[in-house]
Amino acid sequence: MIVDTRFLRKLNPMIVGTRFMRKYRPILEEVTNLRWLFTAVTLSAIAILVMFLHSISKLHIGEAELELQSHDQVTLDTAKMGGRILKVGLSIRSFLKFDMTEDLFEFDGILWFEGDPRLLEKTPIDKFYFDRGKLIEHTELPPQKDRRLFKVRARVQSNLEYRYFPLDDHRLDLVLKNVAMTAADAVLTTDLDSLFVSSKALDEGSWKLLEKKVRSGFEVVPLRVDANDKVLDHATATPEVVFSLDFKRKGLRPVFIIFVPLFFIFFLGLASLTLDPTLDFSNVLALSLASLTSLLYYQMVVQGITPRGDYFTLSDRIYTLLLIISTATFLLLMLHMHQYWKWKGKTELPEVLEYIRVSGAILRRLALMLFLVVMLVCLLLLMP
């Protein structure tokens, strides 16, 4: 019988590895047994739940505060002495449309201006409008002493940011402008008490009003700038008032709808690392492929309820992370089977095949632990 010594030299490291595993296999099996893996997965699930609950408990408003040039104290004192101060207030009775996903809002209420009756009469305050919006109804009501009132119904947009979706909270800015007025005609002021939102303005839904803010000032539109963007000339400053409403999402429904199925599919695919593909390849392949394809399909479903934007939302980033790990899981299983089939065709020595099987089991379970750690660290970094 002729023996190919070159082939034996190639097998020599595997035979040494087989002897090593025979000696230390009980320890290796104890370290990589399913009890440890079940504990790791359970702790990971608890850690994910804690991170989500902690993030939900905080306010994550993505919208930056609008730029507005405020009147200095000298201008306010001068306007007050000259009787050119007009106080502005807004009372919102109801939101006829409140769509955070489409960034579209419609409300009705009372807008009022308070000041010197002579200033109210000669100033074109009825030429007001809401920025990024349309006045559907604009009716002046009978005056009350030193106050002019208007019944308004407006449809507005607020340029919402959805980077933290579905853990996002939002600020709705109602920007009141009047291009028919200038800062020389009158100075518009307001205070927090002048903004009222009825407790019945919002139906019982997914949002609740958390905070109100008001600001007043003026807008300056540049007409000419130099090479350094320094304003050389600008249009006449027009008064402006910003009514800001901070809304917080209520409940866990969007989080459960998006993330619970997502993580269930992900952990289902990750469980394939605990199975031996050399013994039951068809079922392991089916489990891993089913998880990967389900992730791809489910993302199309999630896109239907995700607000439109040219940036990655929080759900997009988490989905991408889980998809990368699931793909790595599938490739690792295929690599293990490739090595097993490769050596199975070259040798019939049971020690060699046992070495490949057991070393692959250890590699898969170590990869499972690594993937869990990477996932938890990345989620911790991604959470707002």
Question: Please, could you describe this protein's structure?
Answer:
This protein is α+β, with helices and mostly antiparallel strands. It folds into two domains: 17-57 and 253-382; 73-249, Acetylcholine Binding Protein, Chain: A (Distorted Sandwich), CATH 2.70.170. It is built from eight helices and twelve strands. The strands form three sheets. Strands 1, 2, 4, 5, 7 and 8 form a six-stranded mixed β-sheet that branches. A four-stranded antiparallel β-sheet has the order 3-6-12-9, with no helix packed on it. A hairpin with a 2-residue loop joins strand 4 and strand 5 (147-156). Helix 5 runs antiparallel to helix 6, helix 6 (281-303) runs antiparallel to helix 7 (314-344) and helix 7 (314-344) runs antiparallel to helix 8. The longest helix has 33 residues, at 350-382. The protein is elongated. Mean pLDDT is 79; it is low at 1-17.
